[in-house]
Amino acid sequence: MEPVFYWIIAAVILGAIELFTGTLVLAMVGVGAVLAGIGAALGAPFWLQAVLFGAGSIASIFGLRPFLRQALEGDSGAPRTPGVFGTRAIEGAEARVLTKVDLSGGLVEIHGDNWTAFPLEPDQVLEPGDSVTVVEIKGATVIVWKQS
Q1: Which of 6, 32, 41, 79 has a CA between 20 and 30 Å from the CA of residue 101?
Q2: 3-state secondary structure of 74
Q3: Residues of the chain with pLDDT > 90: what percent?
Q4: Does this model's pTM top 0.85?
Q5: Are 3 and 46 within 8 A, CB to CB?
């Protein structure tokens, strides 16, 4: 098998693992593997491929990664907690009640998205327009609380 295929396989594996880490480091090392693969495709000796791999990885980690992180963490109007993604990022957020929320459920808006909601305290009834705090997420529903 040609060396270019080894570099391509390495880049794909690094990219796949990056999907689970979210740090952008392995993706940048994958960029180095792509550069080494290009060098291999052009017939560069192995030592030059290794130099391209190292230089491409380091350059992309320090040159490209900060811009990508900033773009991914861009200002969407919602406060973000570093390292918290998905539904965990919603816990503690402010929500606005859209329909009455009681023991049978209701609807709230969180950062422009509508969620089914239940009150934290069973006897609490939240009216439309109330501002509440997301306490917990259970599947596709949120548990909200309004300080009395």
Answers
A1: 79
A2: coil
A3: 59
A4: no
A5: yes
